[in-house]
Amino acid sequence: MKFAIISDVHGNYPALVKVIEDANLNNVDRFIFIGDYIFDLPFSNDVVQYISKLKNADVILGNKETYLKGLSKDNQSSWVFDQMGALHQIYRELSTETKNFISTLKEEAYIPLESNNFIYASHYTKGMPQQAKKDCGSASFHKKMLESPFSHEQFLEDFRMLINQDDYKKIFNEINAEIILFGHNHLQAYGYCNDKLIINPGSCGQPLDFDNRAAYTILEETHSGFNVIEKRVEYDIEATIQAAKKTKVYECGTIWCELVFLAMRTGRDYFGILFEMASEIASSKGEKGNFFTNETWQQAYNIFISTRL
Ligand SMILES: [Fe+2]
């Protein structure tokens, strides 16, 4: 049995189509989607409809989908922050079919293997230590890469050391499955923790490991064990960006979309850098609250652009 493991599409329909084509060329039997299908790019309905019609697919929730509950309860007249403009417009454009499909999804799944064992799939493993974000987040990956560039093989070594730390071991041991999948940080990796195989397929729609090609991972169960193949697939990034620029989502959240485009072009996480700049400006002005004022958000972006170019 051959599985294609796909995560973090983030509305990037053209990337998803290419990944599915590649998986089919590799004779995959089953797809496992581990969350974050919507938001960031304005093609969320296309992504969800495409996934919902695939045969042989297990689909679970990501944090982006769980935002929907909160948004549906919101009074939309309070949606005045440019920082959130793209997200709010994508939410407004979600179709009933998309929302209905998402409402059927669960947070985790145990998928049977031929060997009578299981694959455990979740967007991020429950109880993952608090420092997980710091240890293996895309923003810290970006910083470390700039300080001292490293190869994917070196990153895999670090990932394997990380998942073998005691606190991670404890979590994985408590999961009754031979294979454990998680995504969320957009960094592709895999490795063993004792006898369990841990796989993060990276991000299909917004990879953040300095490689801008769409990521997914093939897992093959054979008589002698498991084969893992990390795949990267090219798609037309510029055509995707040009199509996104023509939408109302771009109009409503231009700065956010420009950051997404930058991430798509470079495979790098610039979100954290802009947020740090905006936080500094906000605190220097004594601004408080959950969101940055539109003036602060724009000022931070102006500085970000002038210092980056
Ligand atoms: Fe996520």
Please outline what is shown here.
By secondary structure, the protein is an alpha/beta fold. It is built from 14 helices and 10 strands. It has 2 domains: 2-233, Purple Acid Phosphatase, chain A, domain 2; 270-309.
Q: Provide the β-strand percentage band.
A: 15-25%
Query: Looking at CATH, which topology of the largest domain would you report?
Result: Purple Acid Phosphatase, chain A, domain 2
Q: Give the bound compounds.
A: fe (ii) ion
Q: Main sheet, how many strands, which sense, barrel?
A: 5 strands, mixed
Average predicted confidence as pLDDT: 95
What's the name of the CATH homologous superfamily of the largest domain? Metallo-dependent phosphatases
Global structural class? alpha/beta
The order of strands across the largest sheet is 3-2-1-9-10
**Beta strand count:** 10
Helical residue percent? 40-55%
Just name the CATH architecture of the largest domain.
4-Layer Sandwich
Rounded to an integer in angstroms, the radius of gyration calculated over CA atoms is: 19 Å
Helix and strand sequence: EHEHEHHHEEHHHHEEEEEHHHHH
Spans of at least 5 consecutive residues with low confidence? none
Q: Separation of termini?
A: 48 Å
